[in-house]
Specification:
Strand content: 15-25%
Oligomer: single chain
Distance between the termini: 136 Å
Low-confidence stretches: 20-37, 230-244, 262-270
Mean pLDDT: 81
Number of strands: 12
CATH topology of the largest domain: Jelly Rolls
Number of helices: 5
Order of helices and strands: HEEEEEEEEEEHHEEHH
């Protein structure tokens, strides 16, 4: 009797385990797919010795840790602190990554593609609806070229965000447009290969919360940051070694030039 009861209990436990395993796998799959528990970790980047500090077109303060001049043109990396951000715009040369360091950031982007810089929504094309995401610390968003996008603080408090622009060079645009009017900034933007609106609704029909991002291209960003050679200033120790080496070489050359004459004098015999 006890043996039969034991077998019955064992069978019940086994059935319960077999029913639970698929549920566990499903939950694990949801956790892996969501990626919510695994925020992106931005790699350590050594800043340039003299970072460029400028204001962006929306009042954001950029500290450019890397510029095109120090990355062989591969990218620019700006550390942006802001409440307000740039007006909606479309890059035709650069892809961008936005990595939220602190605060809550309202990032907006459209689905349509605008490969021709002369064809602009709200100017000679219909305005576009943009999609919003409220991104917190650790969030990485990819903003590909040809897409309308913008960003700002989501709650009015200061936010900090790394902005990677590839290829680099837009740091020069900010330096050339700091303090200028929206109309002037929009005109100069064309020289740098992008459309910049003059007021918030110029290109935009509306904004919804249906932001979808299948791929933030994190692997491409990591490869870009890892593969770019960094120009390091010459160290004092290397400079001293070089000077000593040159001094030694000149000494040797001088000795080599004098030695034949010394040997000739030493072994010269007086005439009989």
């Amino acid at each position: 009797m006890l043996e039969s009861n034991s077998r019955f209990i064992t069978r019940k436990i086994l059935r319960l385990v077999l029913r639970t395993i698929p549920v566990l796998f499903m939950l694990m799959g949801l956790g892996i797919a969501s990626g919510a528990a695994n925020p992106f970790v931005f790699p350590t980047v050594t800043p340039d010795p003299n970072p460029v500090i400028v204001h962006g077109t929306g009042g954001e303060l950029f500290t450019f840790l890397k510029t095109a001049a120090t990355t062989n043109g591969s990218y620019s990396l700006g550390d942006a602190v802001f409440t307000t951000g740039p007006l909606p715009h479309i890059h035709h040369r650069e892809d961008e990554w936005f990595y939220v360091v602190s605060g809550q950031v309202d990032i907006e982007m459209g689905d349509d593609v605008y490969p021709d810089i002369t064809q602009v929504p709200g100017i000679n094309l219909p305005k576009e609806t943009m999609h919003r995401i409220i991104a917190g610390p650790g969030t990485l968003v990819w903003a590909p070229r040809y897409h309308l996008h913008a960003f700002q603080s989501a709650d009015g408090n200061l936010a900090e965000m790394y902005v990677v622009m590839a290829p680099g060079g837009l740091d020069q645009f900010f330096a050339n447009t700091e303090g200028k009017s929206p109309e002037e900034q929009s005109r100069i933007a064309l020289d740098y290969g992008f459309n910049l609106s003059i007021y918030p609704s110029q290109y935009v029909a509306g904004i919804d919360d249906n932001f979808m991002m299948d791929d933030n291209h994190a692997s491409e960003l990591l490869a870009l940051l890892a593969a770019t050679p960094v120009a390091e200033p010459p160290s004092w120790s290397l400079l001293c070694v070089s000077i000593l080496g040159l001094a030694g070489m000149f000494r040797f050359m001088k000795f080599a030039a004098v030695r034949p004459q010394w040997k000739e004098k030493r072994f010269k015999l007086d005439p009989l």
